[in-house]
Amino acid sequence: MNHFPLALIITSSIGISSAKAMVSDDVIEPILQRISTSENSKDNDFYMSKYEVTVAQFSQFVKDTGYQVPKNCMAFTDKRWPDPDNPGSWDLPEYIANPYRPVVCTGIRGALDYANWLAEKTGKSYKLPTISQWRYAAMAGKTGRMAFADDLKQQEVCKYENTEDIANIAGFKKHHQVRYKRSVNCNDGAVYHTVVGMYRPNQFGLYDMMGNVREFTRSCHEYSDSKQQVCQQYIVAGEAWHWQPRGVNVLDWIDKDFQGSLEGIRLVLETDDPGRASEATTRFARQLKEAQLAQRQHHLQLQKIPATPTGIMVQSGENKSYKISWLEVKGEAVKYAVYRAMSDSANGHATGFTLLSDNLKSPQYIDSSAPDGAYVRYQVFSYNKQGEGLGSQIVSYGTAKIFKDDERIETEHFFDGQYYWLGKRDSATVAGFSANPDHFPTGIKPHKPAWVQLGFSVKQSKTAMLSFRAQAEQDTRFELWQGNHLVGRYDIPKSDKFATYTASAVLVAGNAPLEVRLDESSWFELDWLEFK
């Protein structure tokens, strides 16, 4: 069954497009789940919607009232990348084609007004949850990061949530030619937000609490007035398809005027008796099951994205070539792509990972184009018509340049690192250090320091004067280490241009690698280092 007939069914049977004012039995109410609180909870028992509010439900509100949602949404679709100069809206064709997906792009104001309308139409006091209610319901009586598991290896989350996963990474590469380097280690079958209730519920019977879309709460994070009457930022809860889950209790917030396509709505009803469900709600529940069955077929297709190549090896071949090999990846019409990064100290040239060859059908490749004596690194990806999976482990060949303590150290010639990038600035190749590798826009971000390591040799322990050329997004700080020895911590002021800075450094004799490590929550770029 495809989605278009379902859209027609729901429009005709639940009265979304009716011009006359609705009576309460025409209104789709949330499908509720009772949440019994503990004796230690400050909240009384309440009911919470099992699912996020869908397009079908929000459409009724707009049709009944003529409500105007501002068209300034930072919208993600397979054809759109968020752009303030090209904003979207909640009723983009891609968003309303399937009325069983969560409604997005409403902003907090639209969510509050929808809840008020629903309360008025039904005579029931529907509202957004408090953050306390939401967290209690999301944890479902458990402790730790999430109700189903801490899942520190991020291998189980795809059973329970639509998150940043292999399908999402593949979709971005296919639709936007953007490849994020990290995701959870599983495939949930969805690229963007999907039909509600597609995965396992938590122990309270609630779906999508830590995935699909983030959810508004009525709790205020920051007031704009001293009397605390006007909320400037509201707390949002959960995670969306665009991010890996940080955990139920991580604090996050959103400005009252912001509209994005990663936030949605879930409601609570604070009562002992929710009353009977409307006829429209009963029909909606039945039709939702049909929509879930149809959507599951799409998920199954995306779950055919091939696995990450394993067993990758590199060895020298004939005529100064390199042979890269890996284990065959099982699957439907699997092909491979090989990427190479290179540091050629002989001519001062360094590159990040660039495509070397694709459309490979056998699990090996001969690289005969690498300069003699260069330090090379390789990574292999597998793909098919559904998309490209995650990259293999990186393997290297050759000897990285070892810098002496009396020569300029060009940081792009590192031999190992994480959360970095290489870029061209003023004709120089520089190394960038990411302060937010998981691209969270707000809230408390995981502490994942970026670093690179360079070959380094010091003949004699000494105190030296360090010079370095850098620029920073905000005032920030980085560290230099020789193995376990701290060379020093160095501040960089905010600047939109590269500048040269000096400071003292304490070096110890030895051949331990020199590690450049970001120590703050703002990114910076580094061109070179020099000890005098």
TrEMBL record:
InterPro entries in the cross-refs: CTDL_fold, FN3_sf, Ig-like_fold, Sulfatase_Mod_Factor_Kinase, SUMF_dom, SUMF_sf
Gene3D superfamilies attached to this UniProt entry: Galactose-binding domain-like (2.60.120.260), Immunoglobulins (2.60.40.10), paralog of FGE (formylglycine-generating enzyme) (3.90.1580.10)
Signal peptide: none
Pfam families: FGE-sulfatase (PF03781)
Domain Sulfatase-modifying factor enzyme-like: 43-244
MF terms in GO: formylglycine-generating oxidase activity
Protein name: Sulfatase-modifying factor enzyme-like domain-containing protein
Organism name: Pseudoalteromonas amylolytica
Lineage: Bacteria, Pseudomonadati, Pseudomonadota, Gammaproteobacteria, Alteromonadales
